[in-house]
Write a structure and sequence with these properties.
Layout: H1 6-28, H2 42-45, E1 50-54, H3 56-61, H4 63-72, E2 75-78, H5 84-87, H6 97-108, E3 112-119, H7 126-129, H8 135-152, E4 159-164, H9 177-182, H10 186-197, E5 202-207, H11 214-229, E6 236-239, E7 242-244, H12 249-260, E8 265-274, H13 287-305, E9 312-317, H14 327-331, H15 348-355
Parallel strand pairs: 1-2, 1-9, 2-3, 3-4, 4-5, 5-6, 6-8, 7-8, 8-9
Helix pairs in contact: 8-10, 12-13, 13-15
Amino acid sequence: MKKVSTVTKIILSVSLLTFSCAKNKATSIEPTPILPIAETTLQATLPFPMGAAVNVSLLKSNSNYRNLVVKEFNSITAENAMKFASVHPSKDVYNFADADYLVDFAKANGKRVHGHTLNWYKSLPDWVTNFQGTTADWENLLKTHIQAVVSYFKGKVVSWDVVNEAIDEDGTMRNSIWLQKLGADYIGRAFQYAHEADPDALLFYNDYGHEFGPTKRIAILNLVTSLKNKGIPIDGIGLQMHTRVTQSDANLASAINLAAATGLKIHISELDIALNPDNNQALTYTSALGEQQAVKYKFIVKTYNAIPKSQQFGITTWNVTDADSWIPSNYNRPDWPLPFDAQYQRKAAYQGILDGVK
């Protein structure tokens, strides 16, 4: 056997050591992971809460709908699940099943819940519309309903539309069953009853038509200012903003800015922008229409974002996608009023909302 010299041994040892170190070094370096780029969403981008009114049946049955709500919104309103007829179907019976589902869904997914609505002239069960009793009996009916519902959700629902749509188109008090039985002061008492049941809940007066023109807008502002001046516990105004692509920017700006001038919190509470207000049965969605809608969404968001931050309660769209909107069925026409299309995809309106806070 050929002898290996001492020098050769040393060279071999050093070579093996170098190879071993190089090998260890190479295998100890992990590849740098390619991190996913954080996807832009409404709730992550907007500097105020972005909400949607949601349909509980769709939340339960449609995973695309549910996933979109989870992904895009951090505030939710019950579209129908907390209205009088839903939660109080009989005089001595309350049914909170759907409302509970919504509240549990919100809690599990880190979302705020806005309650809608404690008092409205619509969505009343037959036992209320057929109720026979004295003024005191009607007062007890109003108080009992409000306090039972608000108490039940105390600590779970952060805010309520206490009274909804009490002003008519001409600026007079709406001739509702509540006005007929209890007089105009029922509004203030409704707020007091809600506040007694949950002193921490934020309480809103909610109505549509602020952007139609001065007649109804002034009447609404006079009402909320009068409540505030009387010391009634009112915290904010809900501007429903069921509007249309043809509405003037001047009217939209007046609606938002004059409401904010009251000093109350402002909630754009039921936003959608109709593209077919003329009920054209042959109209189809085009990219040009979508861009017009995006410009209008941008203007509303931009105007809202300019009011004092302390007054920005948030913006809520009325439902989630065009497929779920109330407008096509209610007006029996094609329309596309929301930021997502019927296939749950973002429309130009979505970018319009994001552009409103740039």
